[in-house]
């Protein structure tokens, strides 16, 4: 009986503290559901579309405390993680990495030169790409939204929802969309501190 209680307690503790993402050799947190690709943005957009998803690319760097927060507090939250996994194919980039990247305009870059070209200076930075690859544009020109930094749960999740719902095509700015969400959560008594 005691053995069963110990096993049940261990299972309960593990379920309360989900497994943290492992740290790779490059110093970045590795989510097992992030996609590993050849980093050809047009191909990645097409692959995501074949899966019924959108492409999101996330730039991180070794030692980034906000990247750690994103993985440990946001991407480990089942509500956040499950929504993103269902609607997005996420590809991770190293802000100072040397892996080859093919931009939408065909230019071949390294991760670090791509970050400079696209104007990404913060980590994490998440760029949300359109459903179809446009011709002749760079990622920074084609992105439907860019989120620099790791915010609180609801801001972070709302950006993914807003992109998934194509809010960028409508008249409602993301901040108005987010304010409506916060009000609804407040009414439901679900609002955590941002």
UniProtKB/TrEMBL annotation:
<dbReference type="Pfam" id="PF13098">
    <property type="entry name" value="Thioredoxin_2"/>
</dbReference>
<protein>
    <submittedName>
        <fullName>Thioredoxin</fullName>
    </submittedName>
</protein>
<keyword id="KW-0732">Signal</keyword>
<dbReference type="InterPro" id="IPR041737">
    <property type="entry name" value="SoxW"/>
</dbReference>
<feature type="domain" description="Thioredoxin-like fold">
    <location>
        <begin position="48"/>
        <end position="132"/>
    </location>
</feature>
<dbReference type="InterPro" id="IPR036249">
    <property type="entry name" value="Thioredoxin-like_sf"/>
</dbReference>
<dbReference type="InterPro" id="IPR012336">
    <property type="entry name" value="Thioredoxin-like_fold"/>
</dbReference>
<feature type="signal peptide">
    <location>
        <begin position="1"/>
        <end position="21"/>
    </location>
</feature>
């Amino acid at each position: 009986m005691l053995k069963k209680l110990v096993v049940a307690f261990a299972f309960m503790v593990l379920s309360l503290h989900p497994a943290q993402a492992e740290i790779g050799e490059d110093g970045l947190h590795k989510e097992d559901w992030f996609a590993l690709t050849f980093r050809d943005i047009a191909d990645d957009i097409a692959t995501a579309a074949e899966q019924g998803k959108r492409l999101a690319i996330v730039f991180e760097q070794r030692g980034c405390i906000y990247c750690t927060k994103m993985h440990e507090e946001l991407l480990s939250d089942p509500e956040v993680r499950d929504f993103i996994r269902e609607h997005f194919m996420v590809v991770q980039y190293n802000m100072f990495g040397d892996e080859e990247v093919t931009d939408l305009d065909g230019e071949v870059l390294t991760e670090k030169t791509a970050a400079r070209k696209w104007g990404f200076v913060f980590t994490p930075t998440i760029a949300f790409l359109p459903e179809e690859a446009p011709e002749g544009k760079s990622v920074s020109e084609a992105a439907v939204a860019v989120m620099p930094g790791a915010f609180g749960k609801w801001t972070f999740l709302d950006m993914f929802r807003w992109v998934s719902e194509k809010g960028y095509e409508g008249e409602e700015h993301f901040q108005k969309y987010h304010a409506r969400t916060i009000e609804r959560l407040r009414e439901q008594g679900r609002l955590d501190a941002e």
